[in-house]
């Protein structure tokens, strides 16, 4: 489908979904965002749903301003995927050992490494810029500097919620590695600190929603936030790269005889800010639950624990600010999912997938998510599908 346009206070709201299918609270959030004085455009992806501050699945283009709550607390959260030389024929009948080895190598949930991972020890890991990256930690907000050691130990860890590590098969039976994570606790603390700063600024006092507080250009607060934001986005990218390095090492050891090789990594943020130019304007584009889908650019759009995911190439649709959805998107809250479904439902909906099937991940049940194939159909003018993947192992925190 192409987009549906709804009227908004300052800009029209372009929606790549049926507005009637979007919850009222999410529609109100979109209307609220469209009232911001700095806004120049708002695009809504088919995985849209209610979120804190701004809807998940929205692309907010502003001039001279950025809203930290719209970026979200998991700064730089995103996906990475790698195609391997392995095929379905290389897989063992019992996948539980492989899942166990992955969980041993990569801490999940609130877990962290006993010692910081040395990227130099990871096979083929590009260490350029690593020391410079950590050297810039000295410039982050004073309020979080005491987290330096924890940030180092959490580098290369999964987290919980919808974060996951998967091994998948594509439609030609090639094995792919895929994972989803962000900037861990350090990103969360940086985000919460800056959201608090923004909400106290005088120019934000008359907003319809205090969560839409912004920083404006040429102020010390904006400079501080941008510095911390871009550092946290880099942390998230490094975090995924280290996890992928650890995951590849597990695959090498477990499939020694097959001597697996790996194609170049595809990686994309889906909670972040980028400086981009549209219609002759330099804009700060916030993608909250959306990926960049510039012409020919690779992206990853995951489903859920028991459904397909997609590797895509962007079509460069400027009406959507070169964006696409970041996944299937939730159709019900975590609490609603826990009330609605049982562990037996989870077992049924993840049949054939080696994964956790207990109450601790019930809120991640596939039934809590929108239909990924329908979401993909709604954004045919945003991306083209390169590969359709189906997981056979899913690791959750």
UniProtKB/TrEMBL annotation:
Keywords: GTP-binding, Ligase, Manganese, Metal-binding, Nucleotide-binding, RNA repair. The active site is at residue 326. SUPFAM superfamilies: Hypothetical protein PH1602 (SSF103365). The keyword Hydrolase does not apply. Pfam families: RtcB. Its EC number is 6.5.1.8. Its cofactor is Mn(2+). Mn(2+) 1 binds at residues 74, 163. GO terms for molecular function: DNA ligase activity; GTP binding; manganese ion binding; RNA ligase (GTP) activity. It catalyses: a 3'-end 3'-phospho-ribonucleotide-RNA + a 5'-end dephospho-ribonucleoside-RNA + GTP = a ribonucleotidyl-ribonucleotide-RNA + GMP + diphosphate. GO terms for biological process: DNA repair; RNA processing; RNA repair. GMP binds at residues 162-166, 270-271, 302-305, 309, 326-329, 396. This is 3'-phosphate/5'-hydroxy nucleic acid ligase. It comes from Streptomyces aurantiogriseus.
């Amino acid at each position: 489908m192409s987009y549906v346009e709804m009227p908004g206070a300052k800009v029209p709201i372009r929606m790549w979904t049926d507005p009637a299918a979007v919850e009222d609270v999410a529609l109100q959030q979109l209307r609220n965002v469209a009232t911001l004085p700095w806004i120049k455009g708002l695009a809504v992806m088919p995985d849209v749903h209610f979120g804190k501050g701004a809807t998940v699945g929205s692309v907010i283009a502003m001039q001279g301003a950025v809203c930290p709550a719209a970026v979200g607390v998991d700064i730089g959260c995103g996906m990475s995927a790698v195609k391997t030389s392995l095929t379905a024929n290389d897989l063992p009948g019992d996948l539980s050992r492989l899942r166990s080895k992955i969980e041993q190598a990569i801490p999940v949930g609130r877990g962290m490494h006993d010692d910081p991972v040395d990227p130099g020890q990871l096979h083929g890991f590009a260490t350029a810029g690593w020391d410079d990256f950590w050297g810039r930690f000295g410039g982050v907000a004073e309020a979080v500097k005491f987290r330096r050691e924890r940030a180092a130990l959490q580098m290369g860890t999964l987290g919980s919620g919808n974060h996951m590590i998967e091994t998948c098969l594509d439609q030609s039976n090639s094995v792919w590695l895929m994972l989803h994570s962000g900037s861990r606790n350090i990103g969360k603390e940086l985000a919460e600190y800056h959201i608090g700063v923004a909400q106290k600024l005088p120019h934000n006092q008359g907003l319809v929603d205090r969560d839409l507080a912004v920083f404006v250009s040429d102020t010390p607060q904006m400079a501080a936030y941008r510095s911390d934001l871009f550092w946290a986005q880099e942390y998230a990218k490094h975090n995924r790269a280290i996890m992928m390095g650890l995951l590849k090492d597990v695959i090498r050891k477990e499939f020694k005889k097959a001597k697996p090789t790996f194609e170049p990594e595809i990686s994309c943020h889906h909670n972040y800010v980028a400086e981009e130019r549209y219609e002759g304007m330099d804009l700060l584009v916030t993608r909250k639950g959306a990926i960049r889908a510039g012409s020919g650019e690779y992206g990853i759009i995951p489903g859920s624990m028991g459904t397909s995911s997609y590797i895509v190439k962007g079509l460069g649709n400027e009406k959507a600010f070169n964006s696409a959805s970041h996944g299937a998107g939730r159709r019900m809250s975590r609490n609603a999912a826990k009330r609605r479904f049982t562990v037996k439902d989870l077992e049924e909906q993840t049949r054939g997938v080696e994964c956790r099937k207990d109450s601790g991940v019930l809120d991640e049940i596939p039934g809590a998510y929108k239909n990924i194939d329908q979401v993909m159909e709604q954004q045919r003018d945003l991306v083209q599908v390169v590969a359709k993947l189906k997981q056979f192992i899913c690791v959750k925190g």
